[in-house]
Amino acid sequence: MDQNRKSLNLNLRSLKPSATVAINEHCNALLAEGKTVYKLGLGQSPFPVPDIVVKALQDNAFQKDYLPVKGLRPLREMVAQYHSNREGIGCTAEGVLIGPGSKELMFLLQLAFYGELVIPAPSWVSYAPQAQIIGRNVRFVQTQREDGWRLTASGLEELCLRDPDRPRVLILNYPNNPTGGTYSESELKDLAEVSRRFGIILLSDEIYGEVQHDGKHVSIARFYPEGTIISGGISKWCGAGGWRLGTFVFPKELHWLLDSMATAASETYTSTSAPIQYASIAAYTPSPEIEEYLRHSRRVLGVCGNWVAERLRASAIHCPQPAGGFYVFPDLSGHSEKLAKRGIHTSEELCTRLLSETGVALLPGSDFGRPLSELTVRVAYVNFDGSLALKAAAQVSGDLDESFLRAHCDKVCIAIDALCHWASR
Fold it and tell me: SS3 letters for 288-336?
């Protein structure tokens, strides 16, 4: 027992605060000092919560009772129906677990399932630290820039063949944070085949699914339904990050894991906020208001992401075109000699100097599991007033263009222009 306690203390002492939380707090401190900062570090939706969902929260503010650990039954039914309709798979309310953010549910999954955590890198900043807190083994699979930073079926198979019988959870996040990339149906089918062959539990983190820019997100659960848990929530597509509501959808073959997680939840957070759960029913209920909200959100994010990627490439910065979410993952190695002459050799040094010299806040690729010497960074192109941008987009019947961005997403444009100039000088 003493040895376990000592090991846990060492795990916690070696951790840094979440990189995304830390950059947001640092930027806010600089702003409070009166400095100019362009916040492209924290990946928070710029858009307001839809009015219909806000109204539902107001109407349910009186809800004060503890709800079931697994979640409010009508909400679980609506989430199951949403995924059944969208993916054509047999979801039921019994297979849905509601939590205070998908982040907490991911932690409980690792707590409840003893096995190796497989993470394609670059990856979201909190997957690996959660495993470290619990004491689980993490296996990073380094992806390649030439593959669009996507995990390949051959790469996954190569990992599994080293120890075919090892229990594993693979986290597949797409549209991806930090790259903005996604997978084709053929790539998903190939990954599903390997996962099935080796008995992998696949956690499909689809929190950005509804903000895939073309509106055509496909879940890998279609091709590996018996082994896939779909992770979602309302933080990214509904603008409600601070509401803290996440969802896990399990196939019947994994209900035993859902029950184990719910047991752990009963001893930790007990249940998710009652008013938030009641209000979230409106978010998952099909309506013209939600569809219009999503359509214009995708239009704004699509034109913004495309412009950012094209502007970076025009300055000899490698940057794949984003397919969804609100991130790109540029590689500044084309400027490595110029940067080295300025004493910049790592992604951390790059971001520190960029912030101090231009006010542009980014996160280094090393925070996402990439080598420290690799000059990759994550850009979250969300530093604009989403409410005004949505209203303006609704008035434009044709394609949105750079003039729209300069008028309604000007801080993003200024920041990217500054980054390009700083890297090239």
Answer: HHHHHHHHHHHHHHHHHHHHHHHHHHHCCCECCCCCECCEECCECHHHH
Same domain, 283 and 304: no
Domain housing 42: 2-48+289-424
Domain termination site, one of 267, 287, 307: 287
331 and 221 in one domain?
A: no
Nearest to 328 by CA among 146, 194, 176, 100: 176
Domain boundary among 265, 287, 309: 287
Question: Do 409 and 327 fall into the same domain?
Answer: yes
Same-domain pairing of 337 and 279: no
**Which pLDDT belongs to residue 24?**
79
Rounded to 5°, the CA angle 67-68-70 comes to 125
Query: What single letter denotes the amino acid at residue 150?
Result: R
**Do 267 and 362 fall within a single domain?**
no
- Say what the pTM is: 0.93
Residues 6 or more apart whose Cβ sits within 8 Å of residue 383: 38, 39, 40, 46, 411, 412, 415
Q: Are residues 232 and 380 in the same domain?
A: no
- Statement: residue 7 has pLDDT above 60: no
CB 412 within 8 A of CB 384: yes
Number of domains in the chain: 2
Average pLDDT rounded to a whole number, residues 207-218: 97
For residues 308 and 412, the answer to whether their CB atoms sit within 8 Å is yes
CA angle in degrees (0–180, nearest 5) for 402-405-409:
160
Cβ distance 190 to 225 under 8 Å?
no
The model's confidence at residue 303, banded by pLDDT at 50, 70 and 90, is: very high
Task: List, in order, residues 6 or more apart from 316 with CB less than 8 Å away.
Answer: 334, 335, 424
Are 71 and 277 in contact, with CB atoms under 8 Å apart? yes
Could you tell me the CATH number of the domain that includes residue 298? Answer: 3.90.1150.10
Please state, in angstroms and as integers, the Cα–Cα distance from residue 330 to each residue in 133, 213, 277, 312, 354, following that order. Answer: 30, 19, 37, 8, 14
Q: What is the pLDDT of residues 57-72, one digit of tens each?
A: 999 999 999 999 999 9
Cα 235 off chain centre by: 10
- Do 74 and 210 reside in the same domain of the chain? yes
Task: Determine the pLDDT at residue 90.
Answer: 86
Burial 101-140 (b: 16+ CB within 10 A, else e): bbbbbbbbbbbbbeebbbbbbbbbbebbbbbbebebebbb
Percent of the chain clearing pLDDT 90 (strictly above): 87
